[in-house]
Amino acid sequence: MRKKIKKTAFLILPIVLGVFLIWYSISQLSPSDIQSIKTSFKTANYWWVLLSIVFGILSHLSRAYRWQFLLEPLGYKPRFFNSVMAVLIAYLLNLFIPRSGEFARAASIKKYEKIPFEKAMGTIVAERVADVIMLLFIMGIAFFLQTDLIGGYLFNNKEESSIYTKIFFFVVMPIVGFFIYKSLKKSRNTFIVKVISFINGLMDGAKSIVTMKKKWKFIFHTIFIWVMYVLMFYVVTFALPETTNLPFEAIIVGFVVGGLSMALTNGGLGTYPVFVASALILYHVQDNPAKAFGWIMWTAQTLMVIVFGSLSFIFIPIYNKYQKI
């Protein structure tokens, strides 16, 4: 009974949180604020939004192609269109049930390519390791670019705050973290064991990528996927005049903050626009245009996933039916 309650809470709470945040953010707006955001939506240049969707599609195609490099050593070479549609179905289902997409992706490729579910899931987990490493790398870049801002809070001497902050976070903390990791490896605490297991999984995943047969192609597509993600965010800044001249660090910070918000609710429901807007406001973008940007970006991404994911869900059985004829 308790397990059922936990599972139900796991499924419902992110959606409830997202709906609450939407309601709360709208309730805080005055009529003039709502009108200002509506005006931004009406006057936005949606050709840039369309280009963002193109970059998103390219990232999905690259992800499906990259999957081949993990499946081939296992003796499987699925048809490219099946891989693409399985990836798109995964994104669609993740909008409704967290992490269900990975299982649906493995199940789809098992059904239409006869690849064992366990082996397909293993490759998907390996992919996630590569993506986590890339996300951590981009977060590091965002943090590095913002050492002046962070250092201003930590140190009084603003001229020296940047170098002090860089030394502290990129030299001192990694060394301290390494020794903490070594000392905690023998711990039996459940939470610590999970954290150490996660870190070990990242390291093992990184080692497997380095030693794989087509590692350079895999690494290229991994970088390509994340460059497309950043470009998806970047080009939409040209859709509104208030966000057109954002500096590079604002783009990276906004992208990272938006990406992290996706983990809180299904597909960033309610969280993505709020988090992204709060990041852009730090770079002197007015409140209402920042919120409009967040909503335009989230709406474009979500519609892309819903449309192409739904089409994949419909056409994957049709495609495979005619392949057998």
Report on this model:
- The protein has 325 residues and is an all-alpha fold.
- Helix content is 82%, strand content 0%.
- It contains 13 helices and no strands.
- Helix 10 packs across helix 11.
- The model has no long low-confidence stretch (mean pLDDT 82).
Chart the SSEs and their pairings:
Layout: H1 2-27, H2 31-43, H3 46-71, H4 80-94, H5 100-113, H6 117-145, H7 147-154, H8 158-184, H9 190-211, H10 215-236, H11 248-261, H12 271-281, H13 287-324
Helix pairs in contact: 2-13, 3-4, 3-10, 3-13, 4-5, 4-13, 5-6, 6-9, 6-11, 7-8, 10-11, 11-12, 12-13
Categorize the overall geometry. Answer: globular
Structural class, by secondary structure, is mainly alpha
Round the Cα radius of gyration to an integer and report it. Answer: 22 Å
Q: Kindly state the mean pLDDT as a whole number?
A: 82
Q: Output the number of helix runs.
A: 13
Topology pattern, helix = H, strand = E: HHHHHHHHHHHHH
Q: Compute the number of strand runs.
A: 0
How much helical structure, as a percent, in the residues? Answer: over 70%
| First-residue to last-residue Cα separation | 48 Å
Low-confidence stretches: none
Largest sheet: none
Strand percentage, roughly? under 5%
